[in-house]
Write a structure and sequence with these properties.
This protein is an alpha/beta fold and 450 residues long. The chain has helices spanning 11-28, 69-76, 100-124, 142-157, 180-194, 203-213, 221-240, 249-256, 275-278, 285-292, 325-337, 385-401, 406-410, 417-437, 442-449; strands at 3-10, 50-52, 58-60, 62-66, 89-91, 128-137, 162-169, 197-202, 264-270, 312-321, 351-356, 373-381. Helix content is 44%, strand content 17%.
């Protein structure tokens, strides 16, 4: 029996990322641009992501939603356009215009029933849905507003299914939109309740990785997406290939989320190097694992990361390619003894290891060189709270003190009280992260203060 995973891409960022993800999957499973599979058909485990039609074509279990037609049209005219089912490429007429309230209340509300209907169709074509993977950004209008609305609907209709979100958060200094702090604040408020695991990505960190390791002076979004796809592909690899130690979607949330609200992850990958640098690069397991745990290689920019002060609550390391269980365990042990990572006191083991025999495929336009082995780290670290406090809360407070731009949100049917509620919730989230660091449990501290 196949346990299916459905992919949802919302808004321009989500759809472009989703497109890159499917190109990666097709390359890994030898599926050509018409959806026909080449070569060996014995291993059927990839059917958790693809659906087989009567004509022997494999169609992605995928839904793309946007409130304006341009990005969906690009998908329909792209190289891989034939593999997607046109019914599951939904576009609206008017854009959310970088406004969470438009995506969530006015324009998004008209679209949501259609999205729900298509989702229901996708689910009906499955034997047993394991979970949903959602790609979207939180700084814009559609990805933020409609993304949150779709997540809320899934939470209501498919209550027990895990939802894994890949969220592109606003970068510390590069900004593509003035009202990003408002949108990301409101979206984070919804994500706290409606995703089980959220992987926080930010463009600036990945730009720097491209410039430093891949010699790309001016990386495009395409370069960034191709890097992110490799991590998404590694998280889902054990669902699609047989491996020595498999990890499914539910295992991520069981192992990485100690408390339901603290589910925002940092991710990193190694080796990320060009073909030329590959010749001189250390590619043994210890080398790539150490690279993966250095803060400059995180896909989220955390400026003053301190390996001793910023503690992990849990880490998942997924090895792909030529890695044996014994070596993986020895490396994990080495990380702990050499203080490369620090855990909170109440989490003695801390590591979840996944092993998979199939290294990630390298596409022809990729900047990353092929390597025999690859590691992706997904870590739940307390340092992520600085992303919320410094990038969102701080900027939000400055803008909201003058009530700047608020009329655009209120004009779309949102109540001003919702801003205050979201801000308060984010304040609690930052406090939750601090509580985890202090050795006292929260209720003990309360008893003493009484």
């Amino acid at each position: 029996m196949v346990r299916e995973v459905l992919t949802l891409n919302v808004g321009q960022c989500g759809i472009q990322l989703g497109q890159a993800v499917w190109e990666q999957y097709c390359a890994e499973h030898n599926i050509d641009i018409t959806g026909k599979k080449q070569g060996d058909l014995k291993d059927k485990s990839f059917l958790c992501f693809y659906e087989e039609t009567g004509a022997g074509q494999y169609v992605p279990r995928n839904l793309m939603v946007d409130l304006e037609p341009n990005v969906i049209d690009d998908v329909k005219n792209s190289k891989y356009s034939k593999i997607f089912h046109p019914e599951f490429l939904l576009s609206g007429k008017e854009d959310a215009a970088n406004n969470f309230a438009r995506g969530h209340y006015t324009v998004g509300k008209e679209m949501i029933d259609k999205v729900n209907d298509r989702l229901r169709k996708l689910v009906d074509n499955c034997d047993n849905v394991q979970g949903f993977v959602i790609n979207h950004s939180v700084g814009g209008g559609t990805g933020a507003g409609l993304g949150a609305l779709v997540l809320e609907r899934i939470a209501v209709d498919y209550r027990k299914k895990s939802k894994l979100g890949f969220e592109v958060y606003p970068s510390p200094t590069i900004s593509t939109c003035v009202v990003e702090p408002y949108n990301s604040m409101l979206t984070t408020h919804w994500l706290l309740d409606h995703t089980e695991v959220s992987v926080v990505l930010d463009n600036e960190a990945i730009y720097e990785i491209c410039q430093k390791w891949l010699d790309r002076k001016r990386p495009s979004y395409d370069n960034l997406n191709r890097l992110i796809t490799k991590t998404i592909s590694s998280m889902t690899a054990s669902l699609r290939f047989a491996g020595e130690l498999n990890v499914d979607l539910n295992e991520f949330q069981t192992n990485l989320v100690p408390f339901p609200r603290l589910h925002f992850m940092i991710t990193a990958m190694a080796p990320v190097v060009t073909k030329k640098k590959m010749e001189t690069q250390r590619c043994d397991i210890q080398g790539i694992t150490e690279t993966c745990f250095s803060a400059q290689n995180f896909f989220t920019k955390i400026a003053d990361f301190d390996a001793e002060e910023d503690k992990y609550m849990a880490i998942s390391v997924n090895y792909r390619g030529d890695v044996k269980a014994k070596e993986a365990n020895a490396t994990v042990q080495w990380l702990k003894t050499n203080k490369k990572v620090t855990f909170v006191e109440w989490c003695p083991t801390g590591f979840k290891v996944g092993l998979n025999d199939e290294p990630p495929a390298v596409l022809e336009d990729d900047d990353v060189a092929a390597s025999k082995r690859n590691i992706v780290m997904i870590g739940n670290n307390t340092a992520i709270s600085r992303v919320f406090s410094e990038r969102i809360s701080k900027k939000y407070d400055l803008m909201y003190s003058q009530r700047a731009f608020v009329h655009w949100y209120v004009g779309e049917g949102m109540e001003e009280g919702e801003f205050a509620e979201a801000r308060e919730d984010l304040g609690f989230l930052e406090k939750d992260y601090l509580d985890v660091l202090s050795e006292q449990a929260t209720d003990e501290a309360d008893d003493e203060s009484d």
